[in-house]
Amino acid sequence: MTGKLEFNGQHYLDGRASDPRELGWMRGAPPPADKRITFESGTFRDFPQIRWSFSHMRELMPTMNVWRGPDMPSPLERSDKSAEIDALIFADTNGHTRRFDDALLNTYADGIVVLHRGKIVYERYFGALEPHLPHECQSCTKSYTGTLAAVLVHEGVLNESTMIPHYLPELRGTAWEDATLRQVMDMQTCLAFSEDYVDERSNLWAYRRAFGRLPRPAGYDGPRTSCDYLRTVRKQGAHGEFAYHSLNTQVLAWVMMRVTGRSFVQLLQELLWAPLGCEQDGYVEIDPAGMPLAEGGLSASLRDFARFGELMRCEGEWHGRQLIPASVVRDVQEGGHSTKLESGYSYRSQWWVSHNELGSFEARGIHGQRLYVSPKAEMVVALFASHPVAEGAGDPITMPQILALGRMLRT
Q: What pLDDT is attached to residue 340?
């Protein structure tokens, strides 16, 4: 074992060597200067610091609490299959043979919960994550947002054919002036916005500074809230084709908040968190104006993340109650509006729809976050990770790994 892995020509500490406990991040009273992780340093989203940060985001920046409610947590029964799952052998997309448990370390997993027919059959935690700690969901937050919006459309509170300025007059003259709500829900807007997770000169980094997710340099004179930033975005071509832009989700949440008079956090708590009987409070990052980051700022405990997946697998039914209309979930499962993407997936209401043999659909987030819902295997996989590369580097292992697990559980 070298303790190193290579991605895109760069070498990184592997899953074991980058364990926050091994590196001693934030240990001591106070922690030594070279072991501190702070917002002001601007390195808390760098690797290997993210292996600690993703489980401690509320200690680094302002957040709003998502209350779990006054009732007891909903039960999650167990039917342990850990030994069988650990020993599962599969081939990654590069043809390498791997064991399930080793693959988790090779993809920087922080934790995983597998449900089969609603029961926990597998649960593991690594690094800084513990069962009671919320972990950053990254863009899996989008699937919560899209589901809430789809429910409001179903109820007639929102109209998917309506242009965005009808709800948000502030966005007249912006990229969303002639975009429908459905185009925003399905990422079918054409924005002059570069969503580059590596290039610090990209629009995404400017948006993060405006929101307050990154420190602002001395003399900063740009937008100071998410809404201020959204008002600066212009159109780049015709709407109607899929283009993944996180700003759409923030616009979607702004619409929901404006129309309902409730914050995104209130909607989460009232429609999902409390009715699901979550074990832990969640929390959402907020900007200086108190606007929640609905496109990537949610942190949840792993079991509560899995509960949301199980709700979707069961077409919105939870312990005998219909929390989400079944038609809303079926619309997501079908993949909706358009031809498939090059990957074979389609995108509907902020969910990735695989159209694979297991009928799976997914919430995905950078650095390895994934909520994989597989109705035909009666399986949900909730996975948190802190991969050093933001996009795609773990997919050659993770995607065949989860598919092999679904095939095993389906038999």
A: 72
293-309 burial, b for 16+ CB within 10 Å, e for fewer?
bbbbbbbbbbbbbbbbb
Nearest-5° Cα angle at 19, 14 to 24:
130
Q: Cβ(285)–Cβ(293) under 8 Å?
A: yes
pLDDT profile of the chain (411 residues), mean per 10: 84 96 96 96 95 98 97 97 98 97 97 98 97 98 98 98 98 98 97 93 95 95 97 97 96 98 98 98 98 98 98 97 97 76 90 95 98 98 97 95 98 85
Check residue 46 and report its DSSP letter. S
CA-CA-CA-CA torsion sign (342, 139, 301, 149) = negative
Structure tokens given for 81: 């299959």
* 125 φ, ψ (degrees, to nearest 5): -130, 145
Q: Rounded to whole angstroms, what are the CA distances from 66 to 91, 266, 278, 297?
A: 39, 7, 10, 12
Count of beta carbons in the 10 Å neighbourhood of residue 266: 16
Q: How far apart are CA 13 and CA 32, in angstroms?
A: 21
Q: What is the DSSP letter of 12?
A: E
- pLDDT value at position 338? 55
Who contacts 233 (Cβ-Cβ below 8 Å, separation ≥6)? 174, 175, 176, 191, 192, 193, 247
Q: How far apart are CA 332 and CA 146, in angstroms?
A: 10
Q: What is the pLDDT of residue 139?
A: 98
Assigned token pair, 11: 């070498």
Sequence-separated (6 or more) residues with CB below 8 Å from residue 230: 171, 174, 176, 247, 250, 251, 254
Q: Tokens standing for 287?
A: 């900007």
CA–CA–CA angle 90, 91, 93 (5° rounding): 140
User: For residue 62, which of 260, 202, 248, 265 has the smallest C-alpha distance?
Assistant: 265
Please check whether residue 6 is in contact with residue 94, taking contact to mean a CB–CB distance below 8 angstroms. no
Rounded Cα distance between 91 and 99, Å, is: 9
C-alpha to C-alpha distance for 47 and 390, rounded to whole angstroms: 10
- Residue 9's CB: how many other CB atoms inside 10 A? 5
